[in-house]
Every structure is written in C-alpha cells, then in structure tokens.
Specification:
Number of helices: 18
Number of strands: 6
Distance between the termini: 63 Å
Helix content: 55-70%
Largest sheet: 2 strands, antiparallel
Structural class: mainly alpha
Pfam families: ASL_C2, Lyase_1
Family: Belongs to the lyase 1 family. Argininosuccinate lyase subfamily.
Oligomer: single chain
Strand content: 5-15%
InterPro entries: Arg_succ_lyase_C, Argininosuccinate_lyase, Fumarase/histidase_N, Fumarate_lyase_CS, Fumarate_lyase_fam, Fumarate_lyase_N, L-Aspartase-like
Bound molecules: arginine
Order of helices and strands: HHHHHHEEHEHEHHEHHEHHHHHH
Protein name: Argininosuccinate lyase
Shape: elongated
Organism: Datura stramonium
C-alpha cells in the first residue's frame, strides 16, 4: 500500500471500509479543472514570493498541464487510496515530476484548497444557469410574439377570475425568471472572494501574497478572515436557495402546462417532439417533460435542505462533514440546468388552441369585475357596485346565461343607473379593452412589456 501524503505519524494503514467510506474522489474529481487552476496560481505566487524557484514553478506548471491533458483524454487513473481530487492530483504530479512537486503544498491546506475550488466551480455553474435562464426567457417571449391578441381566462383559486392576454401570463414567467437570475448574480458577487492562503484555518507565517492568487483566479479579493474562509458554505446555501426558488417557478409552469394540456382544459398542445406515450394505452400522448420539471423541483429543494442541515451543527473551523457539500450541489445544478433547457424546448414546441380557448371564454362571468368598474364610473361606491353585480351574476346563474345576455330592463330592475353603454363593458373582448393601469393586461400595457423584453433580451 502507498504511504498517504499525511502518513508520517501513522503506524497502521486505514481499513478498507474506512478508506471506502471517507473517499470523495468518486465525485470531487469534477473539481479537477478548478483544482489545477488554483494550484497553478498558488505555485506562481510562491515563486514570486521567493518560496519556490522559478524553475520548480515551471516544472510544476508544465506537469499540471500534462495531468489536465491526461484527465481530459480519459487517461488519468483516479485512485481511491489517494482519497480526493486534491491529493490525487498532487500525488500524480509528484509521480510525474518528482521533488519540485513537494513544494506545491507550501502555505496551503486542503481546507482552503477545497473552499477555493468549490467557489470557482459554483461561479462557473452560476454563469451556466444564468445563460439557460436567458434562453428560456427568450423562448417564452417568442411564444408570446406568436400568440398576439389571444385572450385566455385568468384564474384565482383555479376558478375563472378575469380575462387576460396570454402574452401577459407568459411575460409573468419571464419576470420571475429575471429575479431568479438576479438572485444568482447577487450570490455570485458575494461568493467571489478567495479563501486560498487561509491554509488550515489560521493563515501562515510564510510570506505569501493572497492578493496575487486572488487576482489570478478572477476573485474580487482575498477573504478577510481565514477561519471564515475555510468554515463557511453560505455561498453554497445561497446558490441552492436560488436554485430552489427557480425550481419552484419552473414547477408551477410545469403544473400549469400539464393542466392546460389535459382534455379538460385543452388549451395547449405540445408537439410530438416533446411528448411521450404509454406502454399499454395506445392513444396516450403525455406531457412528461413538464411533469418531470415539476418532479425534479423536489430534489432541488431536497438538496438545499441537506446542505442546511449539514451546516447547522458545525463548530468552527473546517469539519470533514463539509465533504458532503459536493454531491447535493452537483445534483442541484444538473437538475436545474436540465429543467431550464427542457422548459425552453417545450416552449418552442407548444401551440395554444385558439378555438378551444375562445369557446371556453364566455363561461364564468370573467367580465363581472369590469361591470363593477362601470358602475364606479357612474358614481356608485365600489362596495355597492360589487353587490349590484353580485346580484346580476346570481340572476345569470338562475337563468343559466352570461352577463351580456341580460336585457337593459333586467339590469335596471337591479339598479336604474345601467345605461345602453353597459354593453361596451360586457363580454371578454370588451372587458379586456378596459384595462389601463400600469402592469395590467390591457393590450397597450402588454405591448409595452413585450417591447421591454425584446430590447432587454436582444430579440430580433
Ligand atoms: N475532501 C475534503 C472535502 O471535500 C477535502 C478537505 C479535507 N481536509 C481534511 N483536513 N481532511 O472537504
């Protein structure tokens, strides 16, 4: 058995069970790029500070590049007995270049090393998620552009509420996604500080320069407090929180579209490209991708909860428990990326059924609130208007008709203020024309929202 890098004080080697239980190489090899980047920056800094010769530095840089090449070519052998990505690469470098490699870990611990690698990884992950959020936003705006003027029932409590433009609803998702991206950017700005040089927890007496490594790795600056630098994973909690909120948004979109694709709603038809069938029922065409978007939100939320529970009982500074921070993050990022990509594809492959929607529109008294506003314009206090329209609706329910089917005499029997012009307010087409307030579903307002997003997302 190879002697461990930390083996000096040990007389016996660890049992196979412990070795298997404590390894992280099976998953943290995903950090190899960041680990090599960090080691290169560290070696360069050590040479600048006179802690390593320039020739040792060059040997190390060349060796690390060769190892990176081997990893990318699938030729590198990851060894469980070398525990994690950091020791695998350092030991392989020693195998490759000999003595100079033994200087690389000067003024460095795996504790600051892993914190640095992981921040770099999360930073890249954030950039990747944000670009996918933008793609989904573009797909939704384009879907809106293809469905100009289409009015759909708006719901509250999943009961018919007021008419809205489909474009307005689609742009609501776009707004939510914009805040999701904003949360990730906030998280990115806060995580972009460098732990490297914090060493195990206390820093070092050696003359390192943490500003050099921080700059080389694109961080805003070195973290101020070495104990904090190796201890906290709040950047991960923020990333997973942001992902969870995005996941909840996507899950609601999934739920809505699955519902709308049902025979009962029939508002939306996904193309074959984004549907799947049943192994027993030959007629089936299911919106599985959006069901799985809804389903995968569960694991994204679960990953956040795992991390919160992982961190809550840890005394300062580093604890090995923190090795458990990787898998939930990898899982969450993979899931959210897939959810965003598939949602965009679904949006590109879905059509809204104008006829079916138009047939559904007259039912449910969607124009009742517009009618109450009509009475307000005639000088009636809103609470009284509400009551008058409520009694009008009750009359409709007893007659099995809509508000626009009531005659002026019938309306006047409820209140004499109704005039012929009331019919300009009734029916969804008329009703929707009355919306004027900022942010409302009125066509001018929605057109303004669309222009905003076309410009912001550079849609041509
Ligand atoms: N594999 C460890 C992790 O992921 C690296 C740090 C280990 N440090 C230590 N002192 N055992 O957290």
């Amino acid at each position: 058995k190879e002697v461990k890098l930390w083996g000096g004080r040990f007389e016996e080697s660890v049992t196979d069970a412990v070795e298997k239980f404590t390894e992280s190489i099976s998953f943290d090899k995903a950090l190899y790029k960041q680990d090599i980047m960090g080691s290169k920056a560290h070696a360069s800094m050590l040479a600048k500070q006179g802690l390593m010769s320039d020739s040792d530095r060059d040997t190390i840089l060349k060796g690390l590049e060769e190892i990176e090449g081997q990893i990318e070519a699938g030729q590198f052998v990851w060894r469980t007995d070398r525990e994690d990505v950091h020791m695998n690469i350092e030991a392989a470098l020693t195998d490759l270049v000999g003595e100079p490699a033994k200087k690389l870990h000067t003024a460095r611990s795996r504790n600051d090393q892993v914190a640095t690698d992981f921040r770099l990884w999360c930073r890249d992950a954030i950039d990747g998620i944000i670009s996918r959020i933008k793609n989904l936003q573009i797909a939704l705006v384009e879907l809106a552009l293809h469905n100009e003027g289409l009015i759909v029932p708006g719901y509250t409590h999943l009961q018919r509420a007021q008419p809205v433009l489909l474009q307005h609803l689609l742009l609501a998702y776009v707004e939510q996604l914009e805040r999701d991206a904003g949360r990730l950017l906030d998280c990115r700005a806060r995580l972009n500080f460098c732990p490297l040089g914090a060493c195990a927890l206390a820093g070092t007496g050696l003359p390192i320069d943490r500003f050099i490594t921080s700059d080389a790795l694109g961080f805003t600056g070195p973290m101020r407090n070495s104990i904090d630098a190796v201890s906290d994973r709040d950047f991960v909690l923020e990333l997973l929180s942001a992902n969870s909120i995005t996941a909840v948004h996507l899950s609601r979109l999934g739920e809505e579209w699955v519902l709308w694709a049902s025979e009962e709603f029939g508002f939306l038809t996904p193309s074959d490209k984004v549907s799947t069938g049943s192994s027993i029922m030959p007629q089936k065409k299911n919106p599985d991708p959006m069901e799985l978007v809804r389903g995968k939100s569960a694991r994204v939320i679960g990953d956040l909860v795992s991390l919160l529970v992982l961190c809550k009982g840890l005394p300062h500074a580093y604890n090995r428990d923190l090795q458990e921070d990787k898998e939930p993050v990898f899982d969450s990022v993979k899931a959210i990326v897939g959810m965003l990509e598939v949602s965009a594809e679904f949006a590109q492959n879905v059509s809204f059924n104008r006829e079916r929607i138009q047939k559904a529109l007259p039912a449910g008294h969607l124009d009742a609130t517009t009618l109450a506003d009509y009475l307000v314009k005639k000088g009636i206090p809103f609470r009284t208007s509400h009551d008058i329209v409520g009694r009008s609706v009750a009359l409709c329910v007893s007659r099995n008709c809509e508000l626009q089917d009531l005659s002026l005499d019938e309306l006047n029997s409820l209140n004499p203020v109704f005039d012929k012009d009331v019919y300009e307010y009734l029916g969804v087409e008329n009703s929707i024309k009355k919306f004027k307030s900022y942010g409302s579903t009125g066509s001018e307002c929605v057109a303004g929202q669309l222009d905003y997003w076309i410009d912001k997302l550079s849609i041509s």
